[in-house]
């Protein structure tokens, strides 16, 4: 194997590891967000709500489906919330999720 092939293989492996980590961080963030939202809206069945949010997050790539699901639920519960506030919450929880996964090794 040439040095170029070895480097290409190493870059591919790094890409896949980074991609897998990003998916795990996003999933963890969505779970944390759902638990927070369940508490805010007063859902007694927090684990069921987490599953609802996770299912919403699997419909399309990106964060819009999760954002719209949680925002709609907050508003339905008469919680004052807007898209920008929720996006900021999601951004902050992304770092929390990444730190938790990093701590777990």
Short description:
With 105 residues, the protein is mainly α. The model has no long low-confidence stretch (mean pLDDT 92). The protein has helices at 3-41, 46-57, 64-76, 83-104.
Report on the structure:
The chain has helices spanning 3-41, 46-57, 64-76, 83-104. With 105 residues, it is mainly alpha-helical. The protein has one domain (3-104). Helix 1 (3-41) crosses helix 2, helix 1 (3-41) runs parallel beside helix 3 and helix 2 packs antiparallel against helix 3 (64-76). The longest helix has 39 residues, at 3-41. The radius of gyration is 17 Å and the shape is elongated. The model has no long low-confidence stretch (mean pLDDT 92).
Topology pattern, helix = H, strand = E: HHHH
Q: Helix/strand-derived class?
A: mainly alpha
The count of DSSP E runs of length 2 or more, i.e. the number of strands, is: 0
In the predicted model, the low-confidence regions spanning at least 5 consecutive residues are none
Measure the end-to-end span.
32 Å
Number of domain modules: 1
Descriptive key words:
105 residues; 4 helices; elongated
Show the helix and strand layout.
Elements: H1 3-41, H2 46-57, H3 64-76, H4 83-104
Helix pairs in contact: 1-2, 1-3, 1-4, 2-3, 3-4
């Amino acid at each position: 194997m040439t040095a170029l092939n070895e480097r290409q293989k190493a870059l591919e492996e790094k890409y896949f590891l980074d991609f897998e980590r990003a998916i795990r961080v996003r999933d963890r963030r969505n779970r944390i967000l759902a638990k927070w939202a369940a508490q805010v809206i007063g859902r007694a069945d927090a684990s069921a709500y987490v599953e609802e949010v996770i299912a919403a997050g699997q419909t399309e790539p990106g964060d819009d489906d999760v954002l719209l699901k949680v925002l709609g639920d907050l508003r339905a519960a008469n919680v004052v919330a807007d898209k920008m506030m929720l996006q900021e919450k999601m951004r902050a929880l992304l770092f929390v999720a990444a730190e938790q996964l990093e701590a777990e090794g």
